[in-house]
Amino acid sequence: MITRLNDINLRPYNTFRIDAKCSQFIEYTSVDDIPAIASTLGPDMDFINLGGGSNMLFVSDYNGVVLHSKILDIEMEHLGNGAVRIKAGSGVSMDELIERCATSGLWGLENLSGIPGNVGASAVQNVGAYGVEACDVIHTVECFDLQTNRFVKIPVGECGYGYRNSMFKNSENKRRFIISAVEFDLSTIPTPKIGYGSLAEEFGNCSDGNLTPLQIRDVIIKVRNKKLPEVDEIGSAGSFFKNPVVDKSIFEHIREQACRITGQNDVIVPHYDVSDGIKIPAAWLIDRCGLKGTVCGGAAVWDNQPLVIVNKTGNASAKDIVELENKIIETVEATFGVTLHPEVEHIGII
Ligand code: EPU
Asked: Which of 31, 34, 112, 253 could form a disulfide with 144 if both were Cys (CB 3.0 to 4.6 A apart)?
């Protein structure tokens, strides 16, 4: 079923709870609706696919079409030797899917528990947490290709996955694909991943052998709740910035600056070695700059995880959030010589 609405307020559809209007809003419940919708999208018509709206900041009204998938089908196929393929519609809530899979004893998605947003958006954004990224379990992404007017199944290896990135985010592809479903490869054979910092602390000496995916999910939700705001209660888009990757000389500069700020002779900078350099938690840099709790109008830096910007009053404007974003970028740059880049997508024109 296709529902078309004009000039609606997107506040309920973005987790920042920002007021912004869109010209047209099209919601669809079936994969069979997509070709009909595609045929009405003119070549010059601007459109976006909106999932749970958990990674978007509407900086102005959006003068285009917002496509919203409500495809909620979930199918399960046993492939033998414990392997299970789950196909979930793009409109399925990622966390509801994870809860169902974990409850059924299926391993693979549990570390992504509590991440807001829908299945389709998770495949675009390659969401990640606690040592797992969506691309670790995705098998294929099914989409309608507006260039060829056909449905295609894109194997994970062709999705161009990287840190919070995929080929679906390339500017030439944004107007090309409408994701209908994602296939995940899960397993009934235990594969607990509990080595990630704060998770390892929670599990202590617990032996991997006795764990269930549901237990891991419960612990992850507990860890997340300590640090991250509950999106139903306080507007935010999760991590606002990506963790920067720097080279050795910048890393050394960061260490020296941290010593200077704290007055200590030696500061241990948290970091992870990655293929293209050294990844530093942006939260650590923002914290060292003393920005926790900083307020711009109705927006604020979240105290328990300064990588998160929140709509503190519930009435923050996009301008407040962008002002705070710029303040953070400028302060971190001036202090550490590192430029932070937003993970949150900005939609509209400031
Ligand atoms: N830290 C501070 N001060 C704080 C909080 C954290 O200095 O108040 C430092 C600590 O050194 C800590 C480090 O930041 O060890 C990292 O913090 P955390 O483990 O929370 O991870 P993160 O790198 O800040 C990333 C993802 C999160 C994901 C967590 C857990 C990005 C941009 N963010 O955050 O994803 O939940 O790891 O895996 O990669 C999201 O994308 O919306 C999101 C929440």
From this structure: 34
Cβ contacts of 301 within 8 Å, gap of 6 or more: 286, 291, 292, 293, 294, 295, 308, 309, 310, 324, 328
What is the DSSP secondary structure assignment for residue 145, as one 8-state letter? E
Which residues sit with their C-beta closer than 6 Å to ligand 1? 129-130, 197-198, 227-228, 238-239, 242-243, 270, 281, 283-284, 287, 305-307, 343
DSSP 76-120: EEEEETTEEEEEEETTSBHHHHHHHHHHTT-BSSGGGTT--SBHH
223 sits in which H/E element? helix 213-227
Pocket test for ligand 1, best of 56, 198, 216, 284 (most atoms within 8 A of CB): 284
Report the nearest-CA residue for atom 1 of ligand 1.
Answer: 284
Pairing of strands 56-58, 345-347: parallel
Q: Which residues are catalytic?
A: 164, 239, 343
Provide the residue-wise pLDDT of the chain in tens; the chain has 350 residues: 999 999 999 999 999 999 999 999 999 999 999 999 999 997 788 999 999 999 999 999 999 999 999 999 999 999 999 999 999 999 999 999 999 999 999 999 999 999 999 999 999 999 999 999 999 999 999 999 999 999 999 999 999 999 999 999 998 898 899 999 999 999 999 999 999 888 888 887 676 678 999 999 999 999 999 999 998 899 999 999 999 999 999 999 999 999 999 999 999 999 999 999 999 999 999 999 999 999 999 999 999 999 999 999 999 999 999 999 999 999 999 999 999 999 999 999 87
* 25: β partners: 5, 66
> Using CA positions, which residue lies closest to atom 32 of ligand 1?
242
